[in-house]
Amino acid sequence: MERNLFLIIFLAFLVHFSTLYFIHAQVTDISTDKQALLALKARVSHDPSNLLASNWSSSSSVCHWMGVTCGARHLRVTALNISHLGLTATLPPQLGNLSFLASLDFKNNSFYGSLPEEYAQLRRLKYLDFGFNKLSGELPASIFYDLPNLQLLYLHFNMFEGKIPSTLSACKSLQNLSLSFNYFIGNIPKEIGNLTQLREIYLGYNKLQGEIPEELGNLAKLELLSLANSSLTGSIPSFIFNLSSLIGMDFSKNSLTGSLPREIGNLTLIKYIYLNSNKLTGE
User: Fold this and answer.
1) pLDDT per position as a tens digit, 67-105
2) Which of 178, 125, 189 is nearest to 151 (CA)?
């Protein structure tokens, strides 16, 4: 009798728990995408062309809105491009609900404020371009843990500060990284050397210090490396001259010391080298 009573109570608990889970579990669909984009529209304080105000109508299909691309298979928002519109706005956390989003392009606007941690939910994201805006604050380290498909990250010409998160190393598919023209401080994270798919790195025009990490020598596919106009010290690492894919390097306006080794001749594909305004010596 007691055993049967225990089973009844246990089963009732399971049913109750399952019901609560179903209620609170977030099920996303095209209406979720629409609400996320309307949340973005509501944050826009200046729209000089009146494009979003006139085109992003709650009475029309989100897939017909300007700058929005939907996938043919699932009819979910897969790309959002509202670049070069002169918009002034902050970034809403609701964009993290665009669970099918692969491309997010907001470059050349006046978005300001911080980067919401909720964007860590965009696990399908491949391209993220917020270049030429006014975003500020530190980059949330948690964002990059769950973006395994990210290939392009452009955050240049903003006002980000703090250290470059070492968690970028979790973005194993990353090929293009541009964080230049911000206010980042500290060392270049050695963990970036785990991103073996990297082809382009732009970290110049920040307030970075310390030496160029030897771990960057693991980046066998690296073509462009720009570390200009910071406060980097030490000598130019010898691994640089073993990166046979390197096309361009810019280490100008730092405090690098030492001399150039003969191995610089190994860079047979090199097209430009900028080393001016350092403390290099020798021939």
Assistant:
1) 999 998 889 999 999 999 999 999 999 999 999 999 999
2) 125
Q: Closest by alpha carbon to 158, among 93, 108, 88?
A: 108
Task: Tally the residues of the chain.
Answer: 283
Give the pTM.
0.89
Q: At which residue do the structure tokens 């984009």 appear?
A: 37
Q: Which two tokens stand for residue 148?
A: 């395994």
SS3 content of the chain, % helix, strand, coil (to 5): 30, 25, 45
DSSP letter at 15 equals: H
Residue ranges and CATH numbers for the domains of the chain are 27-280 (3.80.10.10)
228-231 LR contacts (CB < 8 Å, sep 24+): 228/204, 228/252, 228/253, 228/254, 228/274, 229/204, 229/205, 229/253, 229/254, 230/203, 230/204, 230/205, 230/206, 230/254, 231/207, 231/255
Alpha carbon distance 247, 270 (integer Å)? 4
Residue 22 has pLDDT above 50, yes or no: no
| Number of other CB atoms surrounding residue 54 within 10 Å | 10
pLDDT digits over 140-153, tens only?
A: 999 999 999 999 99
Burial 153-173 (b: 16+ CB within 10 A, else e): bbbbbbebeeebbebbbbbee
Tokens of 129: 């371009």
Whether the CB-CB separation of 84 and 60 falls below 8 Å is answered with no
Decide if 86 contacts 62 (C-beta within 8 A): no
In Å, how far from its chain's centre is CA 13? 43
Sequence-distant (≥ 6) Cβ neighbours of residue 190 within 8 angstroms: 166, 213, 214, 215
